[in-house]
Amino acid sequence: MAKLQVAIDLLTTEQALALAAKVAPYVDIIELGTPLIKNMGSAVITAMKEAHPDKLVFADLKTADAGELEADIAFSAGADMVTVMGAAGNATIIGAVKAAKAHGKGVVVDTIGYPDRVKRAQEVTELGVEFVELHAGLDEQWTAGYSIQVLIDEAARAGVPVSIAGGVNLSNVASVIKAGAQVAVAGAAIYGAEDPAAAAKALREAIDAV
Ligand SMILES: O=C(CO)[C@H](O)[C@H](O)COP(=O)(O)O
């Protein structure tokens, strides 16, 4: 069954916990966004895991170096998954995977900014990562002409476990899952909605209907 991941790109632990409390019944993975972790530190990871022990807590570290060390910090704080940049060297990814194995947790590679996301996804899957995030970041999404269809097409030919992030919403989530993504990541479509719980519920239902 495909998973729904809420990306919490808010700035305080209080805001993040309030949003998670509303949407938790409908999501599988709670992602703590990079700005949130930079603002609040690893304490926000601990707070979220304590509040939602039954959910997978995803720390979007976007690690670029010192993979084992950074991943160990987040896993020790309670994270179930951490991200490492696909643009990082393989040694960084291998280090993070080592920390994940020591904690019984997982590493996700984020392909943001990588020119050939599918090729990199296939390469890093060999390194033991959980799945690869085919990702157009917020800046790329705001570039004229951006379409999530690019990521959907990539997922369909990746042949390895992937998630899609970069403007997932109710109008495209079914296509995301039909393309083979194991996880649909939705940030603004949930935290920016007037009723985040209703938005998450609608996404959940659309995923389950595929
Ligand atoms: O990691 C991120 C940005 O770097 C976002 O959390 C991710 O892109 C999902 O958010 P949205 O659905 O708003 O695009």
Automatic annotation (TrEMBL):
Alphabetically ordered keywords of this record: Lyase
E.C. code: 4.1.2.43
SMART domains, A to Z: OMPdecase (SM00934)
InterPro entries noted in UniProt: 3-hexulose-6-phosphate_synth (IPR017553), Aldolase_TIM (IPR013785), OMPdeCOase_dom (IPR001754), RibuloseP-bd_barrel (IPR011060)
Cited SUPFAM superfamilies: Ribulose-phoshate binding barrel
Domain Orotidine 5'-phosphate decarboxylase positions: 3-203
Catalytic activity, as annotated: D-ribulose 5-phosphate + formaldehyde = D-arabino-hex-3-ulose 6-phosphate
Keyword Lyase among record annotations: yes
The keyword Transferase belongs to this UniProt entry's keyword annotation: no
Pfam families cross-referenced by the UniProt entry: OMPdecase
Pathway: One-carbon metabolism; formaldehyde assimilation via RuMP pathway; D-fructose 6-phosphate from D-ribulose 5-phosphate and formaldehyde: step 1/2
Listed NCBIfam families: RuMP_HxlA
PANTHER family: 3-KETO-L-GULONATE-6-PHOSPHATE DECARBOXYLASE SGBH-RELATED
Family the UniProt entry places it in: Belongs to the HPS/KGPDC family. HPS subfamily.
Protein name, UniProt field: 3-hexulose-6-phosphate synthase
